[in-house]
Amino acid sequence: MDDTSKPQYPNYPSETPAHFKPVTESFDYVERDVDIPMRDGVKLHTVILIPKGAHHAGIVLTRTPYDAKELTHHVMSGHLGPMLEGYDNATDVIVEDGYIRVIQDIRGKYGSEGDYVMNRPVHGPLNPTPVDDATDTYDTIDWLVKNIPESNGKVGTIGISYDGFEPLMSLVNPHPALKVAVPMNPMVDGWMGDDWFHHGAFRQQNMSYIYEQSASRDNSYKWWTDYHDEYDLFMHYVSAGELGRAYGMEQLGFWNKMTAHPAYDSFWSEQAVDKVLAAQPLKVPTMLVHSLWDQEDIYGALAVYRAIKPKDTSGDMVKLVMGPWHHGQEIDEGSSLGAIQFGSDTAKYFREHILRPFLAQYLKDGAPKADIAPVTAFQTGTNHWQRLSHWPLACEDGCNVKSRPLYLEPDNKLGFQAPNGGNAYDQYISDPAHPVPFRARPIQPIGYDNGLTWSQWLVDDQREASGRTDVVTYVSDVLTQPLTIAGAPVVHLVASTSGTDSDWVVKLIDVYPDQVAEQPEMGGYQLAVSMDIFRGRYREGFDNPKPLADNQPLTFRFDLPAANHVFLPGHRVMVQVQSSWFPLYDRNPQTFVPNIFFAKPGDYQKATQRIYHSADQASYIALPVIGQ
Ligand code: PG9
């Protein structure tokens, strides 16, 4: 109903004018909000911020499901900088180098038209429509370079997380004006090791994200909870499927797809972006940015690096950066993460010395070739940046240096000597009624606002777990020499369960000396440098869940996330093994059921777990050791 339909009072007119015109002459930028038509007619809401006086400026484009208006109006100001603080904006680089900043609502979200599909698969068996995020990016870039006279016709795509998935999509049949892509902490394979599952164990705390992201175009339906401690919330509903049903999530298409595909079937494998890009020609210089303690997408960047680096025949098209960061911390303050200190602002170093010259080389007319190594990696422990020619530096197969087996040994010892004698196994009771918390309770929700510490959980002190009787711990002697690793540890666990399914969580931990003079609170700290979970039913294949033979020693082999770390002299190496990581991951009922999303209360059974370390049943971690 417009104003004219309401009674008018000429002697007492409205105080609000019919068309207010903001006065922006003093601003140092010009804002244009446009709806860009895609090839199927759908219009995508796009915010364009142009530095005043810009001429032949490069365009830095982010496409997002997280509200373009919000991301371009962080602090309403006449200056571009405050407008662009916050998520996805490497503001110092974008503003100081005079780029035109473009942020667009992806199809189906916020100000854009069309239907939303989570991480919309590229056109093909999973997406029969003629449009996807690749075509939408192509059409957007085509419009931008034809309709922004202040630009030099060069576009770079950049973004973090979901917004890091978008630069990867821009690489599929890329527009000729796309000169560079910077996917940071990208969502790549939701089942294998990014946001939805890790090796098949479901990251159920992300249900709140699925709910809010999928239930409406503007995320106006908000998740709720009756519990301060998320441990209690998820215990109350027993299974993720029951929680989803209770919250009405069976109305949500993506949730129903998720619960219908608990295994790594074609629904997941065909949309894995590393596999999509492996089948594409490499046409656009790409810098993959990875966080060594990425609590959300620790799999994606390195998976894409493995997929596309072999195509980089020039050696200059694909760069990898690995920083000591949580998810997205590269655009924030980077001198510490939780209790861990790095001695310098590593994030600012990245933006100033790596990101800025890399973008300039491709987006600024006449800019020099950036002097950036193929791999720029921060070495934790020694706290310094490295220029490397390749990654990883050691691995089980195919590297110059072969990983070394670090054995679990009797008497809870850990070492490079294969076990020979002593007790054959350790055992613990895994009780689904009392799952191991993945961090100290009360467990907070995921998120970054209101003082939440979700971003830090990968560097929490693991002493919280090591004292539990349902966590078995192995520890080395005190190191007298540095122990340097540079690659992905691989777990080879020989274990049995009295049940017919089981999860295995393995953590590689740096144990600090009992006293640390320069940082007393780090005395005895147990810092996980690499850890992950594996759902036992997938032992024979991620697409082939099978019951486990009960009480039979079986080998479980799985990758842990990459580490670039030095265990310093005076430190010890520790390995922890447990069978739940709750409530971030859903509980394994420990009896084989067709679909754990819909396990019933009676399915959840205690199990006796055994970890073997005898000569013929040796458990070990293939450790990517270098310099020994
Ligand atoms: N990767 C982030 C996320 C996705 C899905 C669930 C929770 C977090 C992100 O895009 O922010």
From TrEMBL:
Keywords in alphabetical order: Hydrolase
Renumbered residue ranges of the record's region Disordered: 1-20
Compositionally biased intervals (Polar residues): 1-14
SMART domains found in the cross-reference section: PepX_C
Domain Xaa-Pro dipeptidyl-peptidase C-terminal, residue spans: 356-622
GO molecular function: dipeptidyl-peptidase activity
InterPro entries per UniProt: AB_hydrolase_fold, CocE/Ser_esterase, Galactose-bd-like_sf, Xaa-Pro-like_dom, Xaa-Pro_dipept_C, Xaa-Pro_dipeptidyl-ppase/CocE
PANTHER family named among the record's database cross-references: COCE_NOND FAMILY, PUTATIVE (AFU_ORTHOLOGUE AFUA_7G00600)-RELATED, PEPTIDASE S9 PROLYL OLIGOPEPTIDASE
Entries under NCBIfam families matching the protein: CocE_NonD
Name recorded for this polypeptide: CocE/NonD family hydrolase
